[in-house]
Amino acid sequence: MSKRYKKLPKDSKELSAVTIDKILNTIKANCTAKFDESVDLSFIINNKQKKNEINLRTVVNLPGGTGKTVKVAVVCEDAKIEEAKAANADIVGGDDFVEKIKNGELNFEKLICTPSMMIKLSKLGKILGPKGLMPNPKLGTVTNDISKAVNEAKAGQAEIRNDKDGNIGLSIGKKSFDDDKLIKNYNAVIDTLEKEKSNLTIKGDLIKQVYITSSMGVSYKIKLEKNF
Question: Which domain holds residue 122?
């Protein structure tokens, strides 16, 4: 362990859970790396059900942004190209762009497409899938409303997806963010999870525990203000 890490608080996970507004100062004080560390959440969900496991996959629009610049690409028919460009998509194309992706040109971080073009992209699952770039209607990246999808992707989105062990990890911003922005982003995540639970068949609470940390810091338990 580095000298910097050894100076961080010990046994932070043993402390009592507190609400997010009361722990942010501590999280920021632990951000001793030279870069602007991310503020990250880790959820442990109740995914082990008798009949089936819970599989969550959705996106949340973060009102305070992510602190990152996202390069957005759009695959669409010719009639939608000007709409995509007007929404400030970084890369826009049709069949020619699909061919470039097929040849391994993946110089973007978010891919949006229209339903009619999804038939062509679906054949590139082995290329886009492992990178997490395959458009998905559930994530709002397969749509005819290209302008809305691009604007939301640029404004700040985070994907919510649990692994096989029931863990969800995502960032809600940077150390440099005002507390108000981080709290708004946190509440947006909680609201999204609450809405997702209403679509699930689940026994008991969805969330078992929540932790917060920074990129190079230690984690603390967060107290949920309500159970769901």
Answer: 72-155
- Give domain status of residue 5, yes or no: no
Of the candidates 130, 172, 162, which has an alpha carbon nearest to the alpha carbon of residue 23?
172
pLDDT in tens, 42-71: 999 988 776 677 889 999 999 999 999 999
Of the residues 155, 179, 211, which one is the last residue of a structural domain?
Answer: 155
70 CB neighbour count, 10 Å cutoff: 15
Angle, CA of 1, 43 and 165, to the nearest 5°: 85
What pTM does this model have? 0.89
pLDDT in tens, 146-155: 999 999 999 9
**How far apart are the C-alpha atoms of 23 and 212, rounded to whole Å?**
9
In terms of domains, do 99 and 210 share one? no
**Contact status, residue 160 vs residue 170, Cβ threshold 8 Å:** yes
CA distances from 58 to 38, 50, 78, 93 (A): 21, 23, 29, 26
The answer to whether 107 touches 124, Cβ cutoff 8 Å, is: no
Among the listed residues 117, 186, 195, the one whose alpha carbon sits nearest the alpha carbon of residue 158 = 186
What does the radius of gyration of the chain's CA atoms come to, in whole angstroms?
A: 20
**78 to each of 84, 114, 128, 149, how far by Cα in Å?**
10, 11, 22, 17
Quick: pLDDT tens for 163-220: 988 999 999 999 999 999 999 999 999 999 999 998 888 888 899 999 999 999 999 9
The sheet with strand 207-214 has its strands ordered as 167-174, 38-45, 207-214, 220-222
